[in-house]
Amino acid sequence: MDATGRVCPVVVVVEDNLDNMRLTCDLLRARGFEPVGAQTADQALRLVGELKPDLVLMDISLKGTSGLALTRELKADPTTRTIPIVAVSAYAMAQDEASAKEAGCDGFIAKPINTRTFADQLRSYLRRGTASEATDREEAGP
Ligand code: MN
Fold it and tell me: What pTM was estimated for this model as a whole?
């Protein structure tokens, strides 16, 4: 358990496609994360501000406000700027990754995601000393 009392790392999943959202959340739940879905940029802003999640999974191609604009907003706010943001893009192009990094994303994962490695990829982006440690201890327990 980390300082906030969380057992599982909380991940806000920003995704406007409901099927993708369900698949991603199911996968994360099965791998020991606590996913919270956001379908719009407004919803994502509110949830990230309230929950201060351990990570934000950001769909770059959102309707309305783009995932990149939302990333810039979160990284400009001192109360949310330390939360890692991992971009997910359907178009595995070098330019997308460059744009994501330029907007402030901490990581980039191309769709379709690899369900075998996805959780470990995300875990590597979690802030040090937070929920990732708790999960490691649980896995090492009797
Ligand atoms: Mn989308």
Answer: 0.84
